[in-house]
Amino acid sequence: MQNLRKIIKQNSFIDLGKGFYSNQVQEPLNEPYIVHLNNQFLNDLGLSSISPKQLMDLFNGTIQIPNNQIISMNYAGHQFGQYVRQLGDGRGILIGEINKNNKKLDIHVKGSGKTKYSRFGDGRAVLRSSLREYLCGEAMHFLGVPSSRSLMIFSSKDPVYREKSEDAAMIARTALTHIRFGNFEKFFYDNEQKKHQKLCDYVLSEYFPKEAGKSDKYEYLLNTIISSTAKLIARWQAVGFCHGVMNTDNMSILGETLDYGPYGFMDKFNPSHVCNLSDTSGRYSYENQPYIGLWNCSALAHTFSKIVDKPLLKKILSSYEIEYAESLFDLYKNKLGLKNNLETDQDLIQELLNIMKIERLDYSRTFRSLSNVIKENNSIRLNPVLNEWAVKFTKRHKEEQTDITSRINLMNNNNPKYILRNYLLQIAIDKAEEGSFEEIDNLMHIIKNPYDEMPDYEKYAKESPDWAADIGLSCSS
Ligand code: AMP
Ligand code: MG
Fold it and tell me: 80-89, 369-378, 433-442: which range is least confident on average?
């Protein structure tokens, strides 16, 4: 246990004291077994010196680090636009923190049993949803999208009842923080201004120590949260990712993607795509995500209204749209292999997206195919509906100063060949539910190398089959 203590430290969130969290006793799963280990990441964190079994026992709760407090966080949030006063980590616990390149990372376990904040929930997670979260955290990371990351997934025959009885599972993940917009909302709406400010000061001293002593520190904090959120959502849009449940309790204050539920990567491009069956009004559709990001930032900014002047709040909020638009523009420029900025570039991008929408072209495959357009003697044919646009695109490339190889590389490093499509996940889940886990290895391989050409994995780069359209995802997890 000593070796564990050397690597995993007490989570500093406990310094905040009463009201911010509750102490937690884990409820271990019976006869747990490892479904998958993220060896490379465990190694990066210095955790590979600990046996997988010992790590699983720690995450499951059958062994503890001496004198280590395990906690679940207290927060509120706007869910589908409605304020809910008491949420909190209903099935998640903070085990501790770990250092990576002088940055601290939270270690969090999901599915660990009831907490003070479980409300009507059982505190558990099922294998299906845990696997989805486990894989997507890594997929996003390797696509360059800030995200929680996955350490390990384990399961047990312990039954969990959703629409039917399913096997329980837990995942261990890391994130820069698990503090959400909802942690601030909780104290604001409970009229606990001192706690709100204490939380601001904690975040500043933990993550922005250089700013913590300055007189405009709260403006800075809000500004940086809003800016990282705008940039994050631009990245989601660029890779065609739909989060599915953009409630303020799922929004990290450090701009990382958190809490993967009924998410989806876009197959055929459809801006009004809604990936979550429980989202009947389409609030969290793909095209709404940037606006909801702003809505969520406004909800957060409102909680700063006692410590930041109103005109300044407005000004900070108004930076979101600019930051978002600039980030998205840069990302699309990379996807098109363009470095120079021309006035017509915005139209060129929009025209392409319009054709993709009308013709229902596959989002990732269409972008990936674009580098063929500018290759000389290219043999691979582009979808004919893009011919007219391709002429403009080729002409536009002639106005670039960079050489063709670097333009092709730019495109291929920004247009993934491999995407964690829902149908691929579904196949891996079906196999895992039957006790066979090798498909998880295959998916791990493609998501860790999304931009590479890998002839042995060609079938994973195909368009989704028709049956994929029938995969329904809801909040059930
Ligand atoms: P989510 O939509 O998964 O982000 O969850 C919203 C809230 O419900 C959070 O406070 C979760 O921790 C909690 N929650 C979700 N599922 C469960 C569960 N099975 N048991 C207890 N709490 C849960
Ligand atoms: Mg959540």
Answer: 369-378
Comparing CA positions, the residue from 461, 445, 456, 450 lying closest to residue 36 is 445
| Residue 6 tokens, joined | 């050397």
Task: State the pTM of this model.
Answer: 0.98
Separation between Cα atoms, residue 265 and residue 241, nearest integer Å: 5
Q: How far is residue 239 from each of residues 103, 121, 146, 228, 267, measured CA to CA in Å?
A: 26, 33, 12, 17, 11
Ligand 2 centroid distance, CA of 90 (Å): 9
Residue 14: Cβ within 10 Å count: 15
CA of 187 to the centre of ligand 2 (A): 18
475 alpha carbon, closest ligand? 1
- Mutate which of 117, 161, 245, 251 for ligand 1 pocket (most atoms within 8 A of beta carbon): 117
pLDDT in tens, 223-252: 999 999 999 999 999 999 999 999 999 999
Ligand 1 proximity of 124 Cβ (cutoff 6 Å): yes
Q: According to DSSP H, which parts of 65-153 are helical? A: 127-142
Closest alpha carbon to 450 in 410, 420, 408, 407: 420
Beta bridge partners of 93: 109
Whether the CB of 417 sits within 6 Å of ligand 1: no
Confidence bin at 379 (pLDDT 50/70/90):
low
* DSSP 8-state symbol, 126: E
Q: Which uninterrupted H or E stretch holds 293?
A: helix 289-303
Under the banding of pLDDT at 50, 70 and 90, the label for residue 380 is: low
Contacts 24+ apart (CB under 8 A), 104-107: 104/12, 104/176, 104/206, 105/45, 105/174, 105/175, 105/176, 106/11, 106/174, 106/175, 106/176, 106/177, 106/178, 107/8, 107/11, 107/151, 107/172, 107/173, 107/174
Q: With CA atoms as reference, report the closest residue to 456 among 407, 418, 424.
A: 418
